[in-house]
UniProtKB/TrEMBL annotation:
Domain of life where this protein originates: Bacteria
A Gene Ontology BP annotation from the UniProt entry: photosynthesis
Entries under InterPro entries matching the protein: Globin-like_sf (IPR009050), Phycobilisome_asu/bsu (IPR012128), Phycobilisome_asu/bsu_sf (IPR038719)
Family according to the record: Belongs to the phycobiliprotein family.
Organism of this sequence: Crocosphaera chwakensis CCY0110
GO cellular component, one term: phycobilisome
Gene3D superfamilies: Phycocyanins
Pfam family, one: Phycobilisome
Keywords for this protein: Bile pigment, Chromophore
Protein name in the entry: Phycobilisome protein
Length: 157
């Protein structure tokens, strides 16, 4: 949304916007109540979501078959997971996946590649999506899943 407003401002310099250029605002306003509801549900369920994801990742990594990580590394992953859910939820709320991609994910991708955790991410983010869907209705999930899929695509590449 913020990226679209910025683009609109540049595109319409010295003239009025057309109806088609304003369409994204109408679309957003039609979905804002559901976006807020989804955001609030994720916020209220954050700890339960994180615990369930952590348990599933632990189960998936039985005998360190996926990754080896000491407790400090696991704590960093838990922190990053929490931040990813928050940033993805914020991007969903304001409908601005471009800003999520350009402002956070490209930077995080560098870190993920540097430590060699692309495989971990490719397994991790689908689990986050699976767990979050359990806390949301299908209608709510359709708003957050694109952000989480973008996370997985960029960080797992």
């Amino acid at each position: 949304m913020l990226t679209q407003f910025s683009k609109l401002s540049l595109d319409t310099d010295r003239r009025y916007a057309t109806d088609s250029e304003l369409k994204f605002i109408e679309d957003y306003l039609e979905s804002v109540d559901m976006r807020i509801q989804t955001y609030e549900k994720i916020m209220a369920s954050e700890e339960a979501i994180l615990q369930e994801v952590d348990a599933k990742m632990h189960e998936l990594n039985e005998n360190n078959c996926l990754y080896k990580m000491d407790e400090h590394g696991k704590e960093i992953c838990r922190r990053d997971r929490k931040q990813a859910i928050k940033y993805s939820s914020a991007a969903m709320l304001v409908n601005d996946l471009d800003r999520l991609r350009d402002g956070l994910l490209i930077w995080l991708q560098t870190i993920v590649r540097a430590v060699g955790y692309e495989r971990f991410v490719r397994n991790h983010y689908p689990i986050i999506q699976e767990v979050i869907k359990q806390y949301l209705t299908a209608e709510e999930a359709k708003f957050i899943l694109p952000a989480l899929q973008l996370d997985c695509t960029i960080l797992g590449a």
